[in-house]
Amino acid sequence: LARSAEDHLSKGFQGFEAFKEKQAARHTDIDINSLDVALVDGQLKLSALDENGQPISDKKLASIEDAFFKEEGLVRSLTLGLSELTESIAHSTSEFFRDYDLEFSSEGTVKDGRFSLNDLVQEYNQYFEKYYEDSSERGTILEGYDKMTPTTEKYKTFSERLEKNGLEIFATLKFAHERPSRSEWSKMSSLIDLNA
């Protein structure tokens, strides 16, 4: 599931960046970096801010959404990627006694994603920078094996970083630290007692 989510997210991210470039040319008065997509109630929802940091008008958002939903491959990649990411997080963290109740749409996708695409990219990049802050990679034959490059410089884009490290460690490190509530601890304690 995590590998499938990685593939869909990488493809979806690249497609969404290209989509944003097209929209930047058509809508010069919006902050194109704020254009975001999230899985809400089983559907992808877009949001964006204008140059002053205010939400764009419903009419302008509808125009952007019309263009977005015509790109069926992109919509499919992002829907599956954000859904599978949420499922993957739920599965990996349930091993650490965190149980996320997921609701699914009639199409089989998670109704509400854990992240918007921009939030995911930001949090993943922060995680990657921290995880690899003291790491270096050996060069290729052409570059010379004795050349060492910091990992964070070798893998600069979200897609490259996702390919390098995947989602599983990110999900585990990011969400497994969420501590269970007292009632969850009591349930775990009683299960431990029963198994003893």
Topology:
Blueprint: H1 2-26, E1 30-40, E2 43-50, H2 58-70, H3 72-94, H4 117-131, E3 136-138, E4 148-150, H5 151-154, H6 158-165, H7 168-175, H8 182-195
Antiparallel strand pairs: 1-2, 3-4
Helix pairs in contact: 1-3, 1-6, 3-7, 4-6
Question: Could you walk me through the main structural features you see in this protein, from its secondary elements to its overall organization?
Answer:
This protein is an alpha+beta fold and 196 residues long. It has one domain. The chain contains eight helices and four strands. The chain has helices at 2-26, 58-70, 72-94, 117-131, 151-154, 158-165, 168-175, 182-195, and strands spanning 30-40, 43-50, 136-138, 148-150. The chain has a two-stranded antiparallel ribbon. α3 (72-94) packs across α7 and α4 crosses α6. It is globular and about 55 Å long. It starts with a helix and ends with a helix.
Brief account:
The chain has 196 residues and is an alpha+beta fold. The chain is built from 8 helices and 4 strands.
Descriptive labels:
single chain, 196 residues, alpha+beta, two-stranded antiparallel sheet, two-stranded antiparallel ribbon, globular, disordered C terminus
